[in-house]
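Worked example 2:
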Amino acid sequence: MESDEILRRLAPLFAEMDKQCMVTDHLIDKDQWRIYLTTMWSNLVMDPENLGMTEADLEDAYRVIEREAENRLGGEDALVEAFRFLTTKDGERCIEKAKLRKSHKDMLLYFSSMMVDPERHKQYMEEIRDST
């Protein structure tokens, strides 16, 4: 799928995220936006068909999402940094403030381990498999 088509499919999600996180006409709550961003990516990875995509589209979707995230959050690797943020004390406070359900929080933390340290995550999952 072309990047323009991916952006077209994701545009309503970005618009809603912006709306929900708007503090003033030109200022968003970046911490809250990070929660929406990481939730969007996690859900897309788990079920790309929900947005009419396939697993093969995820790499291009990642680039589109990354570009949009960098535009709003600044810096490079904004998606990975958003997941990294969730593992900090400030991220924990933001998650608590958002009153996420335990399953939602667990999903985000699971994806954080994959995104922030994929090698350690792989090793951890192998250890779990070996112990069962």
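The chain has a mean pLDDT of 93. The two ends are 39 Å apart (CA to CA).
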